[in-house]
Amino acid sequence: MTETTASDPRLAVKAAATVAQSDDSEGMSYLESLPRRLVTLYLPLLIILVVLLFPFYWMALTSIKPDEQLIDMDTYNPFWVVHPTFKHIEKLLFETQYPRWLWNTMYVAAASTVLSIAASVLAAYAIVRLRFRGADTVGGAIFLAYLVPPSILFIPLASVIQAYGLFDSPLSLILVYPTLLIPFSTWLLMGYFKTIPFELEECALIDGASRWQILIKIIIPLAVPGLISAFIFCFTLCWNEFIYALTFLQSTPNKTVPVAIVNEFVDGDIYKWGSLMAGALVGSLPLVILYAFFVEHYVSAMTGAVKE
């Protein structure tokens, strides 16, 4: 049989195809029948899509509902809208300071993220590559700092901000948010820098490159997916942060979106649900766009930088 296969190339190709087909069928056997695909693939995907997309659907639906449909749940279907209106969105954009709040949120999140990433890159590189005594302990201590609840820190930080005259200013958030962002992003970049082969730096050192040149020209270009992952995490945390923004910002023009929509559209026990949901929906769009453009880099950061 072996001699016949070796003498006839067509039989060899056919045998190889048969083996490959059998291997594929074993690996994908759970997708052979339609009932199994429904249970193991389509149903879980449907549940995940419903769980993830329903909050956006509910916000969009509520933001275009007339007031009578928001109040009367017995007459109108709560999961659908009969006569949609855009007055809530119009009121949000043109009768409030929502564009200013959106700019404040963008400015604070971007500035805090840039500062945090710059500090985290230097800290992570020093801990991973300089090989000083106690580097692992320092890395663990930095990560433990991230586990401290913000509810414990915002009172002493508020005293510091008040003492420096930064109260009720977006600058106070820009200086405070890195206390939350640097520990985790440093720990994240430490793990990513470890996947970059040290031989690249040794070659650069032999050629006369300095540590700064190695960091700028070798490490950072290879760590772009990791930097993007850390940037997305930091930006998202800044964008959604509530406790510090509520404590440090008092005047309406200086507020960020999460605090402003709650303070301005909730009056005691009266909730302006249309404008409230419209503000939440519009405020979540920048993050959706950010994830849509950089999701591939975010996923690639989970697999490491360079394979040896």
From TrEMBL:
Q: CDD domains from the xrefs?
A: TM_PBP2 (cd06261)
User: Where in the numbering of this chain does the ABC transmembrane type-1 domain appear?
Assistant: 102-294
Give the UniProt entry's GO cellular component terms: plasma membrane
Q: Does the keyword Cell membrane apply?
A: yes
Q: Can you say where in the cell this protein is located?
A: Cell membrane
Q: Does the keyword Transmembrane apply?
A: yes
Query: What is the name of this protein?
Result: Carbohydrate ABC transporter permease
Keywords for the protein's UniProt record, in alphabetical order: Cell membrane, Membrane, Transmembrane, Transmembrane helix, Transport
Query: Mind telling me which SUPFAM superfamilies this protein's record contains?
Result: MetI-like
Instruction: Report which superkingdom the organism of origin falls in.
Output: Bacteria
The transmembrane residues are 38-60, 106-128, 140-165, 171-193, 214-239, 273-294
